[in-house]
Amino acid sequence: MPSTLTARSASALSGVVRAPGDKSMSHRALILGAMATGVTEIDGLLEGDDVLATARAVEAFGAEVERLGEGRWRVVGHSGFRQPEGVIDCGNAGTGVRLLLGAAAGYPIAVTFDGDASLRKRPMKRVTGPLADMGAKFDWPGEEDRLPLKLSGGALSAIDHVQTVASAQIKSAILLAGLNANGVTSVTEPVPSRDHTERMLRAFGAEVGVLPAGEGWRITLKGGQTLTGTAVSVPGDPSSAAFPLAAALIVPGSQVTVEGVMLNPLRTGLFETWREMGADLTVTNRRTAGGEEVGDVTARHSKLHGVVVPPDRAAAMIDEYPILAAVAAFADGATVMRGVGEMRVKESDRIALMAAGLQACGVAVEEEPEGFTVAGGPVRGGATVTTHGDHRIAMSHLVLGLAAAEPVTVDEPAMIATSFPGFVELMRGLGADIASE
Ligand code: S3P
Q1: pLDDT digits (tens, 9 = 90+) for 324-369
Q2: DSSP labels for 106-151?
Q3: Which of the listed residues 32, 95, 172 should we mutate to test ligand 1's pocket, taking the one with most ligand atoms within 8 A of CB?
Q4: Which of 166, 169, 208, 250 could form a disulfide with 315 if both were Cys (CB 3.0 to 4.6 A apart)?
Q5: 180, 106 in Cβ contact below 8 A?
Q6: Which residue's CA lies nearest to atom 4 of ligand 1?
Q7: Which residues of 372-404 are buried (b: 16+ CB within 10 A; e: fewer)?
Q8: Atom from ligand 1 closest to the CA of residue 166
Q9: Which atom of ligand 1 is nearest to the CA of 165?
């Protein structure tokens, strides 16, 4: 990967592409496969850096992991995690480390987890707190609440956890720990968050209860259940499909189809918001794959208008606000995004970086502690944007540059490979002008 990438205003984009495999499901397929007994065959696995770090981690925990072909992987689990040698390095992956912490907590092992500079800045107590309530022990060789951390796992007791923030990572970590806990573990969410862990646990033979609780759900899981290896088919990641589709919406004359996109309603908040903005977005060939609804999504260049995004939609599109903000810059009127304080603790402070990047490109942005408002209109561009190594900040600004008056450059593009290897080639194949400098 070059040291910077520059996107320039393109002629119309067109074509049919496939999005890479869903990142959330890919992490889960590897982890559940390693916790299970027997063979798990995965197809469509995202071979991005984040997921490859999880593959190495589960191998270190004793699973046999083999790549059979492109996106095709076999995991053989030996009914649980064994003591690994060395440190478990989760790279850039918040989902990887948080789910692995939950999975590992129920086994009598002592293990140090670490990550890259970005992951070392992200809060971990949101997961280690509930796991400590279940009986796991944590030491912080450096700063408390930050990687690296040492987990001492073992006998766990079930807890009833009530979440203040809807977070699928926290929910999943507790449920995975709950598999090896004494009693029935429950997690209550304020609003529903992505439910891939619950769905996949069922596919591996576990019983998971889900009942409505207020605006959200209460999920229950009895400890002592064993998982059995199974086949997992990973559909395309809607969070990645968002980038080529966004480019089609803002570049005049474009039409792009992304095939095989996962359409789990807890992941499609962005598509709903785009439609409210007037986007010409259609779904064809709806089908079920890997226990999820899947379809081919087509976006055509559209005249968009600003909207107020309902804050209770945040969980269903939390990773998509950066690309929404980039698209909103081309709409008529302002787009208001509130209730998204969680964006500040992702791979970077995404509210601050989107505000800074868009402002550098001549877009008016008002930043608030838990949200931001983007004013729409013609976009000047003509800036070099700091991404702090955040893949979604980089891709969002490159898409912006395809429709801005002047080129847009991003630093640290190598991080795009954490979630979307092949992004630049895929975009070029659609006609985008993205060049290394
Ligand atoms: C994820 C959940 C979300 C999301 C992340 C993937 C998951 O994080 O931002 O990219 O796979 O469970 P939170 O659960 O912390 O909101």
Answers
A1: 999 999 999 999 999 999 999 999 999 999 999 999 999 999 999 9
A2: TSS-EEEEE--TTGGGS--HHHHHHHHHHT-EEE-SSSTTSSSEEE
A3: 95
A4: 166
A5: yes
A6: 319
A7: bbbbbeebebebebbbbbbbbbbbbbbbbbbbb
A8: 16
A9: 16
Residue 7 CA to ligand 1 centre (angstroms): 28
Q: 382 alpha carbon to ligand 1 midpoint, in Å?
A: 32
94's tokens = 């918040």
Instruction: Write out the two tokens for 175.
Output: 């449920």
The three-class DSSP label of residue 421 is coil
Taking the centre of ligand 1 as the mean of its atom positions, its distance from the CA of residue 96, in whole angstroms, is: 10
Backbone angles phi, psi at 433, to 5 degrees: -100, 90
| Cα separation, 195 vs 208, whole angstroms | 11
Q: Which of 194, 197, 344 to mutate to test the pocket of ligand 1 (most atoms within 8 A of CB)?
A: 194
Nearest to 408 by CA among 389, 432, 390, 431: 432
CA 120 to ligand 1 center in whole angstroms: 17
Pocket of ligand 1 (CB under 6 A): 24, 95, 167-169, 172, 193-194, 318-319, 342, 346
Residues acting as catalytic residues: 319
Domains of the chain, first to last: 4-21+236-436 (3.65.10.10), 23-233 (3.65.10.10)
CA 239 to ligand 1: nearest atom: 10
Pairing state between β 381-385 and 406-411? parallel
* 158 Ramachandran zone, left/alpha/beta (phi>0; psi -120 to 50): beta
Sign for the pseudo-dihedral over CA of 190, 203, 183, 154 = negative
Residue type, 256: V
pLDDT tens track for 219-244 = 999 999 999 999 999 999 999 999 99
Task: Return the ligand 1 atom nearest residue 193 CA.
Answer: 14
Do 251 and 403 contact (CB within 8 A), yes or no? yes
pLDDT attached to residue 2: 65
> What are the 10-residue block averages of pLDDT along the chain, 437 residues in total?
88 96 98 98 97 98 98 95 98 98 98 97 98 98 97 97 95 98 98 97 98 95 97 98 98 98 98 98 94 96 98 97 98 98 97 98 98 97 96 98 98 94 98 94
Helix (H) and strand (E) counts for the chain? 12, 26
Compute the distance from residue 437 Cα to the ligand 1 centre, in Å: 32
